[in-house]
Amino acid sequence: MKRILILLLMYAAPARADILFLQNGAEIEGSFIAINGQQISIKKTDGEVTSYPRKDALKLMFVDRDNVRADFAGDSAVEAAARLLPADCGQDTICDAYREYTYVLDAGSSVFKSERVVRKLFAEEARDEAGENRYYYNRDHEEVSLRYAMAVNGRDAARADETTIADASEAPAYPEYDKLRSLKFSIPKVTTGTVTDYVIVSTIARVSREFPFFDRVPIALRYPARKIRISVTAPEGVALSTAASEGVSIASAPQSAHDGKTTTVWEITDVQADVAATKNVSLFCFGAQDTWEDIGKYFSARIGAALAEGKLPRVLRAGKYKTQKAKAAALYQYTADHIVFVPADMNASSYIPQNPEETLRRGRGNTLDKPFVFYALLKKAGIDAKLVYADSGTSPEFFPGIPAVSQFAKAAVYARLDGQDMWLCPLESEIAFGVVPAYLQGRTGLIVH
Questions:
Q1: What is the average pLDDT value for the chain, to the nearest integer?
Q2: pLDDT, tens digit, for every residue of 185-238?
Q3: 117 neighbors 99 (Cβ within 8 angstroms)
Q4: How far apart (Å, rounded) are the C-alpha atoms in residues 278 and 446?
Q5: pLDDT given for residue 68 in this prediction
Q6: Which carries the bigger pLDDT value, residue 255 or residue 327?
Q7: Which residues pair with 7 in a beta bridge?
């Protein structure tokens, strides 16, 4: 069964109820209320509110009650986008008229997120960016669905249907790391002058230090945006940290309190395209307040537990290797020979490594598990080493002011060998002992053990 719940909009049907399709073939008509964790709540046509287990649901179909979204003429964001001209945006290919990100945290540490994007296409060369979309998520923590997606051309609207939505695996060849998924959808009838409008909703069952409340709102530099709005509602007492890329101007963040929760709103307006920019995206970031020290202690305890599990083989023959560097090089080569590298970053799988015996048994390891085996072998050989979580540079920017483990993607090992400080990165097989790959040079790291 797919982990994604597909939510569709129908407009031609005369019915006036949402329909929940269950795995057993039952169809429940009523008004959709919410997806809370593993439950879907719907108010049935007789007025009774009933919850159904998420695992029993096949799909949820939204029928357009009272023709709400079909009458897009009343939608201010769509109307404003339709009026945009290239001169308004300072660019003649594509422009984000409005983007809205809404987050709601509850006292039980679950998070609801909604992302809306309204975009105007000025030139065919940017058609794929307007019509083809992808949203990445971790299947172990997050449930994702497409609320709606449509293309508006004048007075006509074309909507994405079930045939244009797919839940894709990003690592199908490696089942043990097959956690990163993507919701892909195509918006039909996108051409010059089209306004596209879509909403993606997701629910994170529980945030923790291993899957913290931390997110990046991308601000693409290759095309402009007229307005970006970010709203975060959290229980009173939950403090947030924020940061932004250099040059990103953010309006003041007014707060309002209600029902024991505080809502903070940020707005970013009139983002100009910079075709000469050396990077494609800037960021606005936020997350629940934490400290790097506490995060380090949390993961150190769990990594210590993983280190104690299982048994490691004896690799070094007594008396053969005279120096620490020679021992480390032999263990490095042993790791390379016995573990195939899996190009799955730990931020797409897990921040807690498998025990090294299990990784050696299956002969495959990702950007955390393979370095962890090498680290464990060094410790067994009596070599003082440290395991470091590293910002790999694959994400656009690292923000030290927002402590969150999800800013890291790869692991590396630091050791002082025969009086020499060395960084050792047993990832791809072509990385030689003592060589730091370019994507890790000059990056930020956190010592976790």
A1: 83
A2: 888 889 999 999 999 999 988 888 888 888 888 887 777 889 999 999 988 888
A3: yes
A4: 27
A5: 37
A6: 327
A7: 60
Q: What is the pLDDT of residue 35?
A: 63
Mean pLDDT of 320-331: 92
Enumerate the β-bridge partners of residue 138: 180
The C-alpha R_g of the chain, in whole angstroms, comes to 25
B/e letters for 152-180, b = 16+ CB within 10 Å, e = fewer, are beeeebbbbeeebbebeeebeebebbbbb
Q: What does the block give as tokens for 346?
A: 């730990």
| Side-by-side strand order, sheet with 445-447 | 420-424, 410-417, 385-390, 445-447
Q: How many CB atoms lie within 10 A of CB 135?
A: 17
Residue with tokens 């004896």: 314
Q: Which band of pLDDT confidence, cut at 50, 70 and 90, is reported for residue 326?
A: very high
Q: What are the tens digits of pLDDT across the range 41-50?
A: 787 877 777 8
Tokens encoding 259: 């029902």
Q: What is the largest CA-CA distance in the chain?
A: 83
pLDDT of residue 337: 92
Instruction: Give the pLDDT confidence of 353-364 residue by residue, as tens digits.
Output: 999 999 999 999
Asked if 348 contacts 138 with a C-beta cutoff of 8 angstroms, the reply is: yes
Q: Residue 282 and residue 248: Cα distance in Å, rounded?
A: 7
Q: Indicate the pTM of the whole model.
A: 0.79
The 3 state secondary structure assigned to the chain is CCCCCEEEEECCCCCCCEEEEECCCCEEEEEEEEEECCEEEEEECCCCEEEEEHHHEEEEEEECHHHCCCCHHHCHHHHHHHHCCHHHHCCCCEEEEEEEEEEEECCCCCEEEEEEEEEEECCHHHHHHHHEEEEEEECCCEEEEEEEEEEEECCEEEECCHHHEEEEECCCCCHHHCCEEEEEEECCCCCCCCEEEEEEEEEECCCCCCCCCEEEEEEECCCCEEEEEEEEEEECCCCEEEEECCCCCCCCCCEEEECCEEEEEEEEEEECCCCCCCCCEEEEEEEECCCHHHHHHHHHHHHHHHHHCCCCCCCCCCCCCCCHHHHHHHHHHHHHHHCEECCCCHHHCCCCCCCHHHHHHHCEECCCHHHHHHHHHHHHCCCCEEEEEECCCCCCCCCCCCCCHHHCCEEEEEEEECCEEEEECCCCCCCCCCCCCHHHCCCCEEECC
